[in-house]
Amino acid sequence: MPNFDSFGLAPSLLQAIADLNFEKPTPVQRKVLPMILGGSRDLVALAQTGTGKTAAYGLPLVQMTDQANPAIQAVILCPTRELCMQITKDLAGFAKHTPGVRIVAVYGGAPVREQVWALQRGAHIVVATPGRMNDLLRHRNADLSQVQRVVLDEADEMLNMGFQEELEAILSNVPEDVRKLLFSATMSKAVAAIAGKYMRNPEEVVVGQRNAGSENVSHECYKVHAKDRYPALKRILDFHRNVYGIVFCRTRAETQEVAANLMRDGYNADALHGEMMQEQRDAVMKKFRARELQLLVATDVAARGLDVTHLTHVINYNLPDEPEGYTHRSGRTGRAGKAGTSIVIVNMREEFKLRTIEQIIKKTFIHKTVPTLRNVCESQILGLVERLKGLDTAHPMLDSMLPVVTAALAEMTPDEVLKRFVLLECKRFWDEDKGLSEVTQGDRHQAFEPGARRGNPGDMVTMEINLGRRNRLTPAALITLINRATRGPMVRLGKIRIQEQISSFEAPLEAATDLEASLTRGTFDGRKIGVRIAPGDTITAPHPHAHSRSKGGGHS
Ligand code: ADP
Ligand code: MG
Question: Whose CA is nearest to atom 26 of ligand 1?
Fold first, then answer.
């Protein structure tokens, strides 16, 4: 396997690589680095996130800089301010022993004047967001007439964010024969269009499978009622205890709400979204990187491309609008060879989205039930026990203090002390827990114990199923489905209502849980069946014209 020193990199760069503790080039670096350094063609490189794309183009750009020429020779365009700063920092690291190479970052949300000065003082490589670069060009504050190389990093995301016009304006402001290097985790239609329009016969490099998720990431899914999303998130966080991760939300408002709730509930969380003041964003990111902050609640745009290693979890509080977005999110974890988990919280109506994602990531979701209150408490107590076991009891003051404590506890048996120890840790969970609905709740059977749900045997509940006319579901087909799914005594079915996408049927209360469990194991019309007891604990009297059925039979 080639090492970094086989690419013809200058000793100053090899020294910088050694300082960064990069031992071996990553696959994308092995392929792309020599192509950029030794060739002259345009390039489209697709690779998963966290594979080291920055160094793959950054090292050659630093090396190819002509320090004697004060003009801007390379432009790197990337979607966000955070990414812009990150790339600039990475490049500064590569150029650590090549101090003559000047690297300048220009991005929105910061005073333009200082950036203009920085450019005037001299910049060989400019790292820019498209909006700010375009502004600078329009006001003739940046001269790109001598640029030789343009890098489009996270090109798909720049297009997703609506930077197409800016990108096209910039690309038409650089000399026509500029070499274009495009990097992306996914190849969307928009990326292909830009490549087709502005690149000449580019070489294409695909590392790993297109759009494939990282190898080290496992994907888990929790199905909940929409209203249980937040309590489910809390249960998941409490159960896993030491989560260091990003909670992805779809909108700024949702980000703020979830972050505020988590903070109120005592979690070490904060929000990151595009409309925060820049200083605030920087402060939050700094805390998160330093691990002073455990949970970053963020929109896709704000967290895009951020290189924070060792995240244990990525949590999709809500799925992204585009299934491709999931790849980017889950790619935040499982980096640098470490294992990570990507968790998705979905409601019943969103479950179908998982199939599309599974096709893209070429992996299947592990379906999990939301941890019960009991699971959470056990996990917390065991965490505490671990800490207890790890303590060093050799402290000199400890022995002298023991008699006082022993005396104070004299009236209690060790068992009672132990109980209170458990209580001390668990009480807050018991007190705060608002409870989750039956379907969300992991321990489903509990919900059907007498008293947990008002109603008597023989009462009917309405159940919803994620199939309808568009799946060619008919009452007869539904009954056949239920027949096949269940064993044992006859199940009396009530009113059946077939709608376009979702249908419902009435079933006896005592059979509902089993039906739910057995039906959700099957598929219909190529689709995973989702069933739930309709919200609102609908209990109806037995329907007078109830369909009756027995094992293997049709309906009357
Ligand atoms: P990408 O842009 O492909 O998502 P980055 O360029 O941000 O990935 O790199 C991800 C992480 O891997 C960074 O922390 C970077 O410092 C590290 N890294 C890059 N190349 C190497 C290497 N050859 N050996 C070890 N770590 C590396
Ligand atoms: Mg990158």
Answer: 22
